[in-house]
């Protein structure tokens, strides 16, 4: 198992896996909060726009780290059907928040949807293959360690201040 030094290291490795066609209008949607540093790197590398998407897990009442569901932002459609969307996060454990984000993006009628994450469990990867056009990843471990943070040497939590700072707001 390879570990990532931090989100910057993961972003660099992930960017090497992503394919962006110049002929298709593409946008990166970074999952708040941990996906923002990776999304910035990808958007900069391919010179494409970046925005954020809010998807939140619904934690189990006895253990908030266990997701029993998720929901994503709604609102009015912001994209037209000639954009390709790359959803980015710093990793996936259960996939609940990513599936909620996918549904939110799908409701806005994008041309295609890709998911880009450095680490993902095999069962979640297989489930995503059925609902997105492309999956970009760095690692699919044989036995998932239970949390995304287990694959990083340095994995600080991002709060709203960190996100605003990274986005220059």
Automatic annotation (TrEMBL):
- Give any Pfam family that matches: Pribosyltran
Q: Please list the coiled coil stretches.
A: none
- Report the residue ranges that make up the Phosphoribosyltransferase domain in this protein: 10-126
Name of the molecule in the record: Phosphoribosyltransferase domain-containing protein
């Amino acid at each position: 198992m390879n570990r990532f030094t931090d989100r910057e290291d993961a972003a660099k490795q992930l960017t090497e896996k992503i394919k962006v066609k110049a002929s298709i209008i593409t946008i990166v949607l970074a999952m708040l909060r941990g996906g923002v540093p990776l999304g910035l790197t990808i958007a900069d590398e391919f010179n494409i726009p970046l925005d954020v998407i809010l998807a939140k897990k619904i934690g189990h009442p006895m253990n908030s780290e266990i997701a029993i569901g998720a929901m994503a932002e709604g609102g009015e459609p912001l994209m037209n059907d000639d954009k390709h969307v790359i959803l980015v996060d710093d990793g996936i454990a259960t996939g609940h928040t990513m599936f909620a984000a996918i549904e939110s993006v799908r409701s806005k009628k994008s041309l295609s949807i890709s998911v880009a994450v450095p680490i993902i469990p095999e069962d979640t990867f297989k489930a995503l293959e059925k609902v997105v056009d492309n999956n970009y990843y760095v690692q699919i471990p044989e036995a998932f360690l239970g949390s995304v943070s287990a694959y990083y040497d340095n994995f600080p939590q991002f709060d709203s201040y960190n996100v605003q700072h990274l986005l220059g707001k």
